Amino acid sequence: MAAVASSAAVSSAFRARSPCGVNAQHGHCRSPSVAMIQCKIGLPALRLSRMNQKQGLSTQRMLSLVGTPLVCKQEKQQGQGHRKVQGLGPVSLLEEAPKKFFEGESHQIWMSDVVAKRKRPYFLNRNWTAKDITYTSFLLFMHGLCIAAPFTFSWAAFGVFVGLYVITGLFGITLSYHRHLSHKSFKLPKWLEYTFAYCGVQAIQGDPIEWVSAHRYHHQHCDTPDDPHTPYEGFWHSHMGWLLDDESTIARVGARANIADMEKDSFYKWIQKTYIIHPILMAVALFAWGGFPFVVWGMAVRAVWVYHITWFVNSASHVWGTQKWNTGDLSRNNWWVALLAFGEGWHNNHHAFEYSARHGLEWWQLDPTWYMVKLLQTVGLATKVKLPSEDHKRKLSFPAAVTTSQS
Fold first, then answer.
1. What is the pLDDT of residue 14?
2. I need a labelling partner for 335 at 20 to 30 A (CA). Which of 219, 251, 364, 371 fits?
């Protein structure tokens, strides 16, 4: 994934959905028969090749997208146009995606232009794996424990909640799991890298290897049938439903073939093997420190709060907000998600420039995670900090920001 972080390529997709949403406003809407193509940001340049005219090639166009050349070939097949990408790298080509993807009745997500179709039932008439039952039971337990919050409130307990919200949410998830481990936006000394990653472990969102792998697959296949949490399957699915459907998720991201860099690291392998122990130790420490109120506020309320903030990045920031950059997916800049998620809500910025350590690209776009990275850089702890170039911005920019829905 070093190439992912360092290359200046762009994710683009030829959409095959109706209505086409934000892309329709810019002339990027394609007919339902056009193949859906998702190109990974940051991949090495694709090798160009020519197809023999005998194969039915009618046109050939070069799309030079931020340094990543693609050969877009249009063929005639049964009277319908199809586009294929020739090249190297993990490019997901999903022919005739609507037939494979959209199976249920469509519905428009509230106050959004996104039309979703549920692919599988979430509760009844489905197979519940042991992992599904475990995840569901745990989430129900954590949410249920939050009911005790009003009865156990104290300012000390609330202070523990706020402190651990910052430690696990900002240092653990947004800075470590996301910008550092998933996208390699900067480098840290190993002792600090492991410290921040351990903060992410205490967010109880999975071990670093599992989290990073799923997130990289999300970017590789963003808003296609291979995306583990696209809102095209419904808001609930993108928010948390995908976590409770192990069969579907494993079919999309189960290969875990994108984390060789982390699987070679003994620390992350150790965390993966001993993961369940660490949140338990945190709960025991909180109980010893402040009794049951500290467990309620420091574990349950804090974890559930960070859960939904993280999940809103996957759901709300793909259906509500604005798009400034032509990323070819549903990613939106959403100010209130950014406010809650330490800058992660500037999601269209992020999908345009995955490698960037800074998500709030405008001075007024609040991005506390970036402020922390900048501080670490100033004191010499963060190095090789990556930011988008002006040339890259020009190539991905729309003439003006596009308002896609109410935020």
1. 34
2. 219
With vertex at residue 268, the alpha carbon angle to CA 311 and CA 221, rounded to the nearest 5 degrees, is 45
Distance of alpha carbon 256 from alpha carbon 217, whole angstroms: 9
Which amino acid is residue 157, in one-letter code? A
CB neighbourhood size of 152 (10 A): 18
DSSP 95-154: TTHHHHH--S-EEEPTTSS-EEE--S-SSSSS---HHHHHHHHHHHHHHHHGGGGGGS--
Query: Tokens for 171?
Result: 């240092």
CA Rg, the chain, in Å?
A: 22
Judge contact between 255 and 205, C-beta under 8 A. no
Which regions in the chain score pLDDT beneath 70? 1-104, 400-407
Q: What token pair was written down for 98? A: 């609507």
Query: Measured between alpha carbons, how far is 348 from 22 in angstroms, rounded to an integer?
Result: 12
Cβ burial, residue 267 (10 Å; 0-12/13-18/19+): middle
Residues forming beta bridges with residue 86, ordered by sequence position: 71
